[in-house]
Design goal:
Radius of gyration: 33 Å
Structural class: alpha/beta
Number of strands: 16
Strand order of the largest sheet: 9-8-7-10-11-12-13
Strand content: 5-15%
């Protein structure tokens, strides 16, 4: 029997090792649980029957059975008591040894898992000493997807911090990450940074605060900043990616001047980022017809279904990116709750509503009213977008619209802003999608590459593009992004991105389009037109306060250039008179076109 026991135990250990390497942790834990349950049940049945056969005391048989089953997992068996009942050569002995094999296996697997997990964590912790550290705060499906996208960087150790792993520890292990859920990690201090081997002058430390609670993200980033400061980590060693409100959170975390902060700050609002992603991947200009000189030959009619947080953000981007010389813009918005949720939008964006054709329908995207609208207007529509807040409902609406168009012989794409990605649906084609979990979008700032270069061009200093962008205020960043996104898409659509020369007429049309885009951006930012009297009054004050920007009052959010293209010459003439400098606002629009064209060609 000794030989048989050795063979069985060796087989159990060998099988456990093989399965440990072959299966992921979730499968291993489930398999161990299964084998433990089967072995326990089998042991109780086998020993319970045998002990009951040998004793006259039921209570004694019960306790003896419990002891025998426990000893079974320690590699000890009482084969004699079972042989007395069934016989030495009985086929039931196969079942006896199979149950013991499962017990040996579950014990061996549990030991191997415990030892291996501990060793693996120690090894990964040691690598913190030589790698850059990527700390991801918040354990969600999205943050895990983000972690997987950056896991291929061999010089970076990934650390997750959260109140609970929520059953996702196996996924973190598979990407080679570490998990901390203790109070010190959740409220970081200098001791926690020492655990991460973060030191002054050593490597890079990047914090990605991606939990669903944006207030917790900011609070964690602030605590981490204080910890970094306490051990003297230089700002240029640090970066932060924060899910929050850029306008409110970005500058307070940035190292600017003498203020200690993160060297690089990327704060993003998911709704804003999704709408930008949609406009970059599927720009409105791609749905518009133009002549050879860049003048639109059709109107820009847009249908938007959904007016929640994402829908409202998308309205801004659609209006800004839907302005073209020669085209009239109009957008129809369907949302059953629109009238009860648009109060702040109407207040904040009163200039948009006043200056653009925006109409609302208080109906669902599956309503008969929408079907009737499509029946009457489908031939005029150029762009259809859905942002209803629920991914499943949005897909249903998209499929319904596609089927409607199939009956009309129309192949217009339908776009959807989902919870974490954008998608394109079209008859006869596979669904296309682009996710925010792409590390180049959040971590690398890929979406801002052209905007950074545009901003760097206009700064005209010796600092790097990265430094100029880091020091850039929120509004200036948004302005650069809006211009870069719009003109890059338009020039690419018209073929001017690869060396094709701009004629004077084409440049003029594109400059007119850029001015319309600029006006839409300022209206979307809450600006209104400055009167000529106020404009001239600011000119009179220039002799007393040379810091005044004559055409722009940032406090009152007024700008003198919010006028039709034809009136820009008068604005330029007045400002030139008061400043004594040559001002040509039309030329600034032309310059924007030429700069983006050059950047695209480089």
């Amino acid at each position: 029997m000794t030989y048989l026991a050795v063979v069985l135990m060796a087989g159990a250990v060998f099988t456990a090792v093989i399965l440990y390497l072959a299966l992921n942790q979730d499968d291993r834990e489930k398999w161990i649980g299964f084998t433990f349950a089967v072995a326990s049940a089998g042991g109780i049945c086998l020993y319970g029957t045998a002990n009951a056969h040998e004793t006259t005391s039921i209570l004694a048989a019960v306790f003896e059975t419990v002891v025998d089953v426990g000893r079974m997992f320690a590699g000890i068996n009482d084969v004699a008591v079972f042989e007395k009942m069934v016989g030495i050569n009985s086929k039931w002995m196969i079942l006896f040894w199979f149950v013991h094999f499962l017990a040996y296996y579950s014990l061996a697997s549990a030991i191997i898992m415990a030892v291996a997990k501990g060793m693996l964590k120690r090894i990964r912790t040691w690598f913190l000493r030589i790698n850059d550290v990527e700390l991801i705060y918040g354990i969600t499906d999205n943050s895990l997807a983000f972690g997987r996208n950056i896991a291929g960087n061999k010089r970076t150790s990934i650390v997750f911090v959260g109140t609970s792993a929520g059953g996702r520890e196996a996924q973190i292990n598979q990407m080679g990450g570490l998990l901390f859920t203790d109070s010190q990690a959740l409220s970081p201090d200098s001791a926690f940074l020492r655990r991460l081997a973060v030191k002054r002058g050593k490597g890079k430390f990047r914090l990605c605060a991606l939990s669903k609670n944006i207030d917790e993200n900011l609070a964690y980033a602030v605590k981490m900043l204080a910890a970094l400061k306490s051990i003297g980590v230089r700002p240029e060693q640090t970066e932060v990616v924060l899910l929050g409100h850029e306008e409110h959170n970005g500058e307070m975390l940035q190292a600017i001047g003498g203020n200690y902060g993160y060297g690089t700050v990327r704060v993003f609002d998911k709704a804003e980022l999704l709408s930008r992603l949609l406009m970059q991947k599927y720009p409105i200009c791609d749905a518009i017809d133009f002549d050879e000189n860049g003048r639109a030959t059709c109107d820009t009619n847009v249908l938007l279904i959904g007016f929640g947080r994402k829908g409202q953000e998308l309205v801004e981007k659609i209006i800004i990116n839907g302005q073209f010389e020669g085209s009239r813009f109009g957008i129809k918005i369907f949302d059953p709750s629109g009238r009860s949720t648009d109060g702040f939008f109407r207040t904040r964006f009163a200039s948009l509503i006043e200056n653009f054709d925006i109409s609302f329908e208080n109906h669902d995207g599956r309503s008969r009213e929408l079907a009737q609208y499509l029946d009457e207007n489908i031939d005029k529509l150029r762009y259809i977008a859905i942002a209803v807040g629920d991914d499943k409902t949005g897909r249903e609406i998209a499929m319904n619209i596609l089927e409607f168009m199939r009956g009309r012989g129309i192949k217009l794409p339908v776009y959807q802003c989902l919870s974490n990605s954008v998608a394109r649906y079209e008859l006869g084609k596979l669904v296309e999608s682009h996710s925010l979990d792409d590390a180049d979008i959040l971590y690398g700032g890929e979406m801002d590459d052209l905007a950074k270069r545009l901003n760097h061009h206009y700064m005209g200093n010796r600092a790097s593009a990265k430094k100029n962008w880091a020091d850039c205020h929120y509004f200036d960043r948004m302005s650069s992004r809006a211009s870069a996104d719009y003109l890059a898409a338009l020039l690419t659509k018209l073929g001017f991105d690869k060396g094709r020369e701009l004629t004077d007429e084409a440049l003029e049309n594109l400059a007119r389009s850029e001015h319309r885009r600029w006006c839409a951006f300022y209206y979307a930012s809450g600006y209104t037109k400055m009167s000529l009297d106020d404009f001239k009054a600011r000119g009179e004050r220039l002799s007393e306060d040379g810091s005044i920007r004559m055409a722009k009052d940032a406090d009152l959010k007024q700008h003198a250039c919010l006028v039709p293209w034809e009136e820009l010459d008068e604005i330029s003439r007045i400002e030139s008179f008061y400043t004594g400098k040559e001002v040509d606002y039309k030329q600034k629009d032309r310059d924007n076109v030429l700069v983006i064209k050059k950047l695209l060609e480089d």
